[in-house]
User: Fold these one by one.
Assistant:
Number 1:
Amino acid sequence: MPLEVPSAAEAAAYHRLEWLDYSMIGAYLVATVWMALIFSRRQHSAEEYFLGGRRMPWFAVGLSLMATLTSTVSYLATPGEVIKYGVMGAMGGLVFYPLIYLVIAYGLVPVFLRLRVTSIYEYLEQRFDVGTRMFASAIFLVVRLNWMGLVLFSSTLALAQITQLDRLLILAGIGVIAVVYTTLGGMRAVIWTDVAQFFILFGGALFTVAYVVAETGTGPVAWWQAIDAADRPVQPIFSFDPYERVTLVGMGLLGFFWYVCTYAGDQVAVQRLMSTASARAARWSSACDLISGLLVTLALVAVGIALYTYYQGQPPADADQTFPYFIRSQLPRGLAGLVVAALFSAAMSSLDSGMNSVATVISVDYVERWRATPLAPAAQLLLARGLTVAVGLLSILMCLALFLIPEHIRGNLLELAQRVSSFPVGGLGGLFLAAIWVRRCTGPIAVQATCAGMLFGLVVGWGHTFGVFPEDRPLSFMWIIPSSCLVTLLYAQLVSAVRPRGDR
């Protein structure tokens, strides 16, 4: 018997979050701030604030990495991608996980863990010169601020639909709470709240799947058959056509280059690895990140196919907003509050990590690097907290800027995330890979290579808006990070190979 789905007007009329839902959300937020207050008592130095004393447990670091790198964008975009296009785009990134682990654990971890640094961009000054260090850290700041703005953007859209509150009020609420507990607790608070947030966001997805099973009497096999039989464009396993939106191999390559570039050049990821006690613990942390990421991805894919079946292939909202709509209109009171808390946790886990890492880079690479005399420990800690507040406010401004981009240009959340923040990720990752693997590379060559790679990625991602490619058929977002990384590496390798050997 077909499931009768209420119209949007009917659902809005008799389903709103109630006191039990808001109580659960409030309890989550209060617990988060309470944890930060506890950890704030242990903050006595900048190293403790930024790296947790380099004694954080590997499993906590691994789950923190996973929660950090799975933001509200992923939490909403994965089910939305499955509903609108199918499972290929959501699951293709899992193809190269074993190879990703080998490159991270044995190609990158040994390099960074033998350096007793706070900012990974200090390595570039040791390897090249101070100019290269400043260049790379500036790119990171732009990338991470863009990303935090995107996280706030997606969170605000989803929570506004669920709660029916004003978007600016929600934006201010998320931003202020994230700033408060990150500023108070430092890296320890960030990691341990991320651990709690991992279980909340994973549990929210599982509870949604369980509810659809109970309501419909169907399961994953029937859902898979329904979505597989849908009349939609075919998503091939592989294609030589660069305009093909998604292929299994293409998404696998995107996942591989994204992970490698993130672990190579992103302070957010590497800072967590450096908070562990040894290279062995860092390897375990990266393995924990990948395994927990696999579980969450599968859970979110299950949410997507469950909702596709629940609405009989005709969701009553835009694909990216189907999950939030379902939370508000169908989940029972209390359970809706839990899943909303999961959306909050997905946002917070990315914001807190971004704020802490951006504050680290500004403090170490710009303030302390250029001071004639070092700051006292108390002054360093005060500076770190002040910078964290400033970074949080900047991320709110970035979110407001994203609201100005017309919807027809933004595309769906998955595409928007890739086109807004991917080309610098590939270039910055390629810069670090060149520093590690291209022995004859110099600072000026590395900077030139990174600029070339980012420019190439920018054209791939946004060329259709500038008339380089047909506006109605842009190059696939899958190739932004791989192309920008490879162009950076190739430029560095070729120019380094032909330069005179005496040129240092």
Number 2:
Amino acid sequence: MKQSGQLLFQREVQGLRATYLARAAILVFTLFAHLQAHHSQMELIAVSAYSTAGFLVSLIVIWLLSRDRAVRVAGYGGALLDIGIMVALLSTWYASVGGYENVPSAYLLKTSLPAWGFILLALNALPIRPAYPLIVAGGFVLIWEGAFLIVGQDPRTIYTTSFVDAVLTGAVHPSFLRAADMSMLIAGAILAYLTWSYRRTIMNSIQFEVSNAQMERYFSPNVVSRISEEGRSLGGRRQNVAVMFIDLRNFTSMSENLAPEEVVQLLSDYHSRMVDVIFKNGGTLDKFLGDGILATFGTPEPGAEDALNAARAALEMNAALMRMNTERKERGAPALSHGIGIHFGPVIAGNIGTEQRMEYTVIGDTVNVASRIEGQCRELGHSILFSGAVRDEIGQRLQTRAAGSVRVKGKSEPLELFTLDPP
């Protein structure tokens, strides 16, 4: 189940528990109230019967909900139960004062049913299902209109247009009393909208959090924050970027002597340390390439020091690998070595792929050249190599020195490579 669906499910279960606890409390209150004051033994028996039955049903449903069972049945069943409670309350009240034979049916409309209806309506908004308050509101209208139908067929009914007479006597003011219908429908619609809006808010919030979590896999935290605040779409565009390839040396032969779990643990440890350095220097993790990494500096937004940040990250990666090797030596494990290649130039950066599977990445000749520069690290005996384009961007801010001239595939002219001296 998706995160949003799971959270909404939990909220609904919590709300349903609260509604059933409230129903149980209402039924207990109703029972004790009639024990203290009742007009007939039949009234007490009827109230005791449906209060006890409703209370036991509420306890059973609460038990089922504690195990996340019968949730949808509990929701719709609870709304129907509330309609049954309103019918029971209305009929019990009327019967307790003498019933149709002794009391004009107009007194059906003089009860406190609208007040109880609003209470039950509010309870049905707690599970944040728009349908529940709508069902209760519709049920109340049917009950209230049914009462109007009974009153209209009673020859003893007296109609009035006086508000005072409608309140203080047995006369009926249809327009005034039918306001309860309209009020209940409006309240039900408002609560349905609020619950729908709350559900949408939860889903949007979770989608936003998931989106941020996914971006945090690739971008440094400050970049993620800026993207979130600006709400920018990461569309494809051409820009200058520092592209870095990192690759572990002799990893294939080393992994042949390790259990699969040890290989995964080694790569996780190495990748974690390198990615921390990338993010620290404002870089972007493009992807893992087996035992290697493709990172960029200058995505999604280019800056004046992208190449310099990449070079600094390379030095810090060497330092991080030295610390890792110190720890490995203490465990009797062999030391690791890696090669880092950097090139600076134009790329196409953006979301590449299909609607079903898309990733933010960079493509272009700059990416290919960076990969080939990294491949020369073993040949030239350096852990860090970069192109003249990177050297020009760095200027005098780091100590660079020539590492040799090589021919790379796809280039007609030799490529001058440089390396960094540790600070």
Number 3:
Amino acid sequence: MSATTKLTATRLNRLFLAGELSAEEIVEAYLERIQAVDGQVGAYLTVTAAEARERARKLDARRKAGDTALGPLAGVPVAIKDNICTQGIRTTCASRILENFVPPYDATVVSRLQAAGAIIIGKTNLDEFAMGSSTENSAFQVTRNPWDISRVPGGSSGGSAAAVAADLCAAALGSDTGGSIRQPAALCGVVGLKPTYGAVSRYGLVAFASSLDQIGPITKDVADAALLLSVIAGYDRRDSTSHPDADRLQRIQLPTDPNLSGIRVGVPREYFAQGVEPGVRQAVEQAIAKLAELGATVDEVSLPHTEYALDAYYIVATAEASSNLARYDGVRYGLRAEADSVTEMYLRTRQQGFGLEVKRRIMLGTYALSAGYYDAYYKKAQQVRTLVIRDFEAAFRRFDVLVAPTSPTVAWGLGERLDDPLAMYMADILTIPANLAGLPAISIPCGLSQGLPVGLQIIGRHFDEPTVLRVAYAYEKVTQHHQTRPALGQ
């Protein structure tokens, strides 16, 4: 296999701009790798080979002509989670109901990637409508973990994480509603960043839970995560939740010195409670000790309402999903089932188009919002959400970042939790609080347990991605975990 596919996005861009690699050479290396390996992994739902080759030819012509404004991602193949709209390219959300949907426009993040010179190489698999933690809920295929193809890659951005881990793209975009970037990044041994809510435009992201969803990068190292964030972040008037402060994230500079003197690191005791595997705990504790060696001040902190976060999340998220997914009725776009009446058409369309997990969440959300239950469930969940937010506010008065495991376990076996929804939901127990509070959080590789990757989660204040990335980058500079790759297809 070509060594080209092992390179980071930053390195590929430098080699392309220097004329040492052509965009066509880079694209062909990745397409060859996808052809050879993705049959085992199942990361992609759509590979945009023709579009990528055409884009590469144009970039090569511009470079040859002396164009000096090719962009910080010029020549870099990037994969897009298939719930992010791409003009003229199928966007399915891994659901039968959108199996043949082709958007007439690009999501803002896709437009920004292309303006920076990126080459879109394909659309990656996910749990249907991003509802799941294992990428087994896709209507089309199961994605497998490149470290062990008998195990899950995590979810819902499992296709994106697996594609980066297996060198099937240089970087990818995912979406994170309750951990769907960070958790699969942890299980696949790559870097996954959930930005602050409102930092990256959600225009063109197919909505799951609108007060929680956030697009972010999945990459091979922290420098690439910072690079992609600087490209996709920024205010967007087309997204009513976009925040003006997002523009300042377009100028992130990583320090060359890994010294963390003056950084205060909090370790939430509730994130190391029962359920965290011993191997995961050991790897994370060793990572925390390394942060202390780098000069950080480390101390324990309590986030007392953490135990209620999962319950609150699965009421808020399902309620918003119930509302958002009402638009799939067979009338305007997507699947339309034949029937003798409009009411019957609605019923048949949704029955045939949605999978079991999506139906489960719609019903849970509809129940929580129904007359007589709204105050008891949805209102109460929002009150708990406020308590979780206040816990973080108190913690950040003492600390600059909080660190903990990303996932309580390493990747589990395919099919192992499919019949136990609660066990599946528990996979996100350590990532959900940051979504409820809208905080930035990153997962970086910090070792192996049972031969499988473990992720270290770093959580920061609103719009303080620079500090989160500084801590992550410092750790990465003095360790080798991010360079450990799965043996698949090497």
